[in-house]
């Protein structure tokens, strides 16, 4: 395999991994606070369509990403009001949010299908971006660097900052946190809003990073992979990074296998496509078999918090 | 008391109502600086509601809280802590997956860098002679160590008033000794302590004064040193307290339950298995099993009840029938009933009605199920019988199990098993967290069941209870059962030493056997 091909594969893997990494980082923080938001796919689609529309009308990718984040955040607030303030079932509400996001994005994007936009390209000097080897470091969209930064920031926040410790405490034992005087609902609102903004950015990454146009359901299950990835990573940011790139690799394999030729096409593309899901199931089984306790899910994950007193 | 010095804390006419209940009715009392003040009362007397108001978790409907003489409003725990009120909860508000240090940091209002905080924690641990590793993850700690976290958390704020809510219910005698040492040291430094408990011997040993609540009202304020446990218990329940009555000339029959060389495998790395346990219980006999929590009591109960099936059918026999390989349903049919320690979710399903809970364990022995269908009339009747016989305070057979107070639910559960007249009854912690009146009723029912010819195994951490009930007694320690001893002529020191096994050197025992052992709950 030539050097060029290897670098090309790496670039594709990183590109493919970035949207799910962004969404999963957000969802990880949400779940660490004890909330299970299954609406990631819907919020991503809302982010994708708003990001695309802003990019199409203004041509400013920074603005597109920003507005997509706001759109994702607002859609997550629907979920937050229903599940946190009104104690609705989180699973059902999350699924409803995904269905809503799918429909809403299709409606909003009706007049935009098959219109091209610019990609959100690297901001480094062209000689670095075009360099045969150095493009591996400098050739990425700002979204890629942002996603890596967010993983580190998320790790630091959760494990080193006081606010992160409170967030983990809320996810671990909501009633205790409440009795210590922390606002469980407030922390969870903030976490859900962050998760929504990240999902919005992740959605915008599809038209800005992967395919520069709008298509209905263009996130193609990326939100679900992100949710699975959080479990796969057992709620730890750096494992999330490793997992996202692994999934990115598998998705890239699917593309190369479809393109035909080489040893990859020995395995059908459909099997490659199924691989992330199979891997998730496998990991879930392994985690539950090990059952060592401290590495598993936040104890209050998915349970509505109703203050007892 | 010095009349010029205002009380550290004074409550005046505190009233709090919940829908349908008046939890606190015009409660007034005061706690002096440097004194240990007991707040006594049965379950549901309003103790917890009262301290929640002092700690700012709830607010009162009427009345005034005075702090060092000044009327204050305490809207939330943060404000309480700022005043200098610390609280150690009965159910620890700890985060299992977090470290000791993180748990303490979460309880602090000021933001302290973790290195500085660790230094201060170590200083407190040293001052009060407490042992705790700040970097351990809480899920790996014992109950006593977990309580120490709460205490350290409170002490770091140099409180002027420390509220302890039933602190000893989960501790070993050694841990209780240490706790009392710490509390006395604190009081001598001028900190007031509000000590909530219904363990009367402890209050006599520790407290300077006591306020007794019943039905939300203050019924007495007294000096525990001048009272007997019995007189305080009677004030608590409002009537005179009956002793457990045993027939002194009782006779035992043939061995009913024979356990020989029973061993189990531990479920996980933290579990304790039962190893090579043998004993037999005769008809009419109550066999006590003492031991500090976590020494294999749960494994033994699971193995006896059939919840965990054994590998050897002869390891457990009832009237000569091998039970070792059978499950709970068959064992019940053959006459072995069991009551596990945990009421909610193990002995009873909180979301089910009492009637449905009766069906769960009494269906075969009481014919509550016929040709695959629940005979709901029979279930209701049987449940009504239990409620009446055991004076369970419930709205009726259709009340949800979860709506009952702990003591009442325990009475229902015990009644449900006892009225099935089992040949063998195995119970764990029959009166855990149950108030004095209900505890006596439950104990009397066990004695009566034995008198009617059943063989009973009582697993308990309450030595007084075991000495009251048992005919013979053995101690479980790290999964091994000691030789059974006749209860007549046994000394608490002897049992204490057997229990202490792994804990080693401590020769002290906290419990003093006296004329009033029967009343401590």
UniProtKB/TrEMBL annotation, chain A:
Location of this chain's protein in the cell: Cell membrane
Topology in membrane: Multi-pass membrane protein
Keyword annotations from UniProtKB, A to Z: Cell membrane, Membrane, Transmembrane, Transmembrane helix
Official protein name in the record: ABC transporter permease
Keyword Protease listed: no
Major subcellular site: membrane
Top-level taxonomic group: Bacteria
Membrane-spanning ranges: 6-24, 36-56, 62-82, 94-113, 133-158, 189-208, 214-233, 240-259, 271-289
Pfam families: BPD_transp_2 (PF02653)
Species: Devosia pacifica
GO molecular function: transmembrane transporter activity
Organism lineage string: Bacteria, Pseudomonadati, Pseudomonadota, Alphaproteobacteria, Hyphomicrobiales
GO cellular component: plasma membrane
Automatic annotation (TrEMBL), chain B:
Major site of localization recorded for this protein: membrane
Cited InterPro entries: AAA+_ATPase (IPR003593), ABC_carbohydrate_import_ATPase (IPR050107), ABC_transporter-like_ATP-bd (IPR003439), ABC_transporter-like_CS (IPR017871), P-loop_NTPase (IPR027417)
Pfam families cross-referenced by the UniProt entry: ABC_tran (PF00005)
PANTHER family to which the protein is assigned, alphabetical: CARBOHYDRATE TRANSPORT ATP-BINDING PROTEIN MG119-RELATED, GUANOSINE IMPORT ATP-BINDING PROTEIN NUPO
GO molecular function, one term: ATP hydrolysis activity
Family to which this protein belongs: Belongs to the ABC transporter superfamily.
Organism expressing this protein natively: Devosia pacifica
Topological relation to the membrane, as annotated: Peripheral membrane protein
Higher taxonomy: Bacteria, Pseudomonadati, Pseudomonadota, Alphaproteobacteria, Hyphomicrobiales
GO cellular component terms given for this protein: plasma membrane
Entry superkingdom: Bacteria
Record keywords, A-Z: ATP-binding, Cell membrane, Membrane, Nucleotide-binding, Repeat, Sugar transport, Translocase, Transport
Record-linked SMART domains: AAA (SM00382)
Gene3D superfamilies linked to this entry: P-loop containing nucleotide triphosphate hydrolases
Compartments it resides in: Cell membrane
CDD domains assigned to the protein according to its UniProt record, in alphabetical order: ABC_Carb_Monos_I, ABC_Carb_Monos_II
Protein name listed in UniProt: ABC transporter
Residue ranges occupied by any ABC transporter domain in the UniProt entry: 9-240, 257-503
């Amino acid at each position: 395999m030539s050097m060029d091909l290897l670098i090309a594969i790496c670039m594709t893997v990183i590109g493919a991994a970035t949207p799910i990494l962004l969404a999963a980082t957000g969802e990880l923080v949400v779940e660490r606070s004890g909330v299970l938001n299954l609406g990631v796919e819907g919020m991503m689609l809302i982010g994708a369509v708003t990001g695309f529309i802003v990019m199409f009308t203004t041509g400013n990718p920074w603005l597109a990403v920003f507005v997509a984040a706001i759109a994702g955040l607002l859609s997550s607030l629907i979920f937050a009001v229903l599940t946190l303030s009104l104690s609705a079932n989180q699973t059902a509400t999350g699924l409803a949010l995904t269905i809503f996001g799918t429909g809403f994005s299709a409606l909003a994007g009706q007049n935009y299908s098959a219109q091209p936009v610019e990609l959100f390209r690297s901001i480094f000097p062209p000689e670095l971006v075009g360099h045969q080897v150095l493009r591996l470091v400098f050739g990425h969209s700002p979204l890629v660097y942002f996603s890596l930064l967010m993983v580190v920031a998320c790790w630091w926040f959760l494990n080193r900052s006081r606010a992160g410790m409170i967030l983990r405490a809320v996810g671990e034992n909501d009633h205790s946190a409440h009795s210590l005087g922390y606002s469980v609902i407030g922390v969870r609102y903030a976490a859900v809003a962050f998760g929504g903004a990240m999902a919005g950015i992740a959605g915008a990454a599809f038209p800005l990073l992967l395919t520069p146009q709008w298509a209905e359901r263009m996130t193609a299950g990326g939100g679900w992979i992100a949710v699975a990835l959080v479990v796969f990573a057992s709620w730890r940011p750096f494992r999330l990074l490793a997992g996202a790139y692994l999934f990115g690799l598998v998705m890239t394999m699917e593309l190369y296998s479809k393109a035909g030729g080489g040893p990859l096409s020995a395995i059908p593309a459909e099997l490659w496509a199924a691989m992330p899901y199979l891997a998730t199931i496998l990991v879930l089984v392994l985690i539950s078999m090990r059952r060592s306790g401290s590495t598993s899910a936040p104890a209050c994950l998915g349970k509505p918090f109703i203050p007892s007193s | 008391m010095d009349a010029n010095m205002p009380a550290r804390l004074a409550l005046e006419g505190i009233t709090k109502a919940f829908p349908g209940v008046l939890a606190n009715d015009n409660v007034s009392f005061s706690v002096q600086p440097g004194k240990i003040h007991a707040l006594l009362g049965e379950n549901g007397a309003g103790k917890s509601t009262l301290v929640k108001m002092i700690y700012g978790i709830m607010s009162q409907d009427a009345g005034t809280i005075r702090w060092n003489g000044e009327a204050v409003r305490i809207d939330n725990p943060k404000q309480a802590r700022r005043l200098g009120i610390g609280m150690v909860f009965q159910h620890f508000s700890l985060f299992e997956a977090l470290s000791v240090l993180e748990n303490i940091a979460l309880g602090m209002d000021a933001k302290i860098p973790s290195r500085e905080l660790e230094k201060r924690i170590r200083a407190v641990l040293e001052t009060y002679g407490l042992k705790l590793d700040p970097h351990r993850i809480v899920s790996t700690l014992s109950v006593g160590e977990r309580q120490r976290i709460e205490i350290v958390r409170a002490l770091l704020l140099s409180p002027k008033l420390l509220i302890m809510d039933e602190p000893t219910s989960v501790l070993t005698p050694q841990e209780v000794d240490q706790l009392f040492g710490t509390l006395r040291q604190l009081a001598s430094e001028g900190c007031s302590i509000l000590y909530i408990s219904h363990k009367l011997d402890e209050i006599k040993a520790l407290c300077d004064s006591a306020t007794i609540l019943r039905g939300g009202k203050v019924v007495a304020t007294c000096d525990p040193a001048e009272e007997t446990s019995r007189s305080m218990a009677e004030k608590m329940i409002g009537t005179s307290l009956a002793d457990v009555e045993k027939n002194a000339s009782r006779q035992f029959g043939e061995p009913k339950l024979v356990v020989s060389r029973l061993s189990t495998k531990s479920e996980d790395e933290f579990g304790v298995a039962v190893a090579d346990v043998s004993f037999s219980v005769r008809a009419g006999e109550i066999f006590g099993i003492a031991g500090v929590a976590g020494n294999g009591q749960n494994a033994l109960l699971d193995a006896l009840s059939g919840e965990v099936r054994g590998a050897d059918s002869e390891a457990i026999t009832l009237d000569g029938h091998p039970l070792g390989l059978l499950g709970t349903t068959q064992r019940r049919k053959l006459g072995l009933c069991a009551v596990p320690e945990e009421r909610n979710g193990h002995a009873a399903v909180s979301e089910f009605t009492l009637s449905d809970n009766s069906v769960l364990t009494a269906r075969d022995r009481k014919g509550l199920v016929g040709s695959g269908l629940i005979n709901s009339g029979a279930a209701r009747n049987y449940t009504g019988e239990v409620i009446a016989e055991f004076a369970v305070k419930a709205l009726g057979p259709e009340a949800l199990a979860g709506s009952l107070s702990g003591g009442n639910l325990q009475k229902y559960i015990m009644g449900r098993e006892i009225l099935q007249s089992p040949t063998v009854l195995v119970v764990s912690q029959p009166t855990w967290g149950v108030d004095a009146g209900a505890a006596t009723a439950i104990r009397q029912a066990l004695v009566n069941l034995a008198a009617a010819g059943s063989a009973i195994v009582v697993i308990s951490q309450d030595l007084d209870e075991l000495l009251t009930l048992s005919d013979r007694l053995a101690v479980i320690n790290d999964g091994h059962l000691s030789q059974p001893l006749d209860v007549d002529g046994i000394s608490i020191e002897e049992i204490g030493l057997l229990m202490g096994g792994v804990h080693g050197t401590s020769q002290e025992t906290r419990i003093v056997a006296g004329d009033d052992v029967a009343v401590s709950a």
